[in-house]
């Protein structure tokens, strides 16, 4: 099984780089996954990551895209709840890349 080195500790990830156990996730793991994805995390990235994790923690599943966009709009306003905005943060897709960095399970339909 592939591993990601975080603070001198090995963390199990899938062949595609998804965290195998979302319970071990922390900010340092997020930074390591982001670096592997070529993403430099900003406060705006963290807002998206924390919203995605909060939804997962509450409901036990990854938010569907339309549900997540509604949550972002309610919390951060319409300008931060568009596909265009989220793709500027996560160029390989907010659902795929954002959730991957957030340490969440791979959403259905994401390769």
From TrEMBL:
Entry's localization field: Cytoplasm
Primary location recorded for the protein, binned into one broad class: cytoplasm
Domain of life, per lineage: Bacteria
Keyword Metal-binding: no
Keywords: Cytoplasm
Cited InterPro entries: DsrC-like_C, DsrC-like_dom_sf, DsrC-like_N, DsrC/TusE
Pfam families (alphabetical): DsrC (PF04358)
Family label: Belongs to the DsrC/TusE family.
Record-linked NCBIfam families: dsrC_tusE_dsvC
Annotated protein name in UniProt: TusE/DsrC/DsvC family sulfur relay protein
């Amino acid at each position: 099984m592939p591993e990601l080195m975080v603070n001198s500790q090995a963390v199990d990830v899938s062949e595609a780089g998804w965290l195998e156990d979302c319970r071990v996730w922390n900010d340092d793991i997020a930074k390591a996954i982001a670096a592997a994805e070529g993403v430099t995390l900003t406060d705006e990235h963290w807002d998206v990551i924390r919203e995605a994790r909060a939804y997962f923690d509450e409901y036990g599943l990854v938010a569907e895209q339309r549900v997540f966009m509604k949550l972002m709009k309610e919390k951060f306003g319409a300008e931060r709840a568009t596909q265009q905005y989220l793709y500027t943060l996560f160029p390989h897709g907010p659902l795929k890349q954002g959730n991957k960095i957030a340490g969440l399970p791979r959403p259905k339909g994401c390769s």
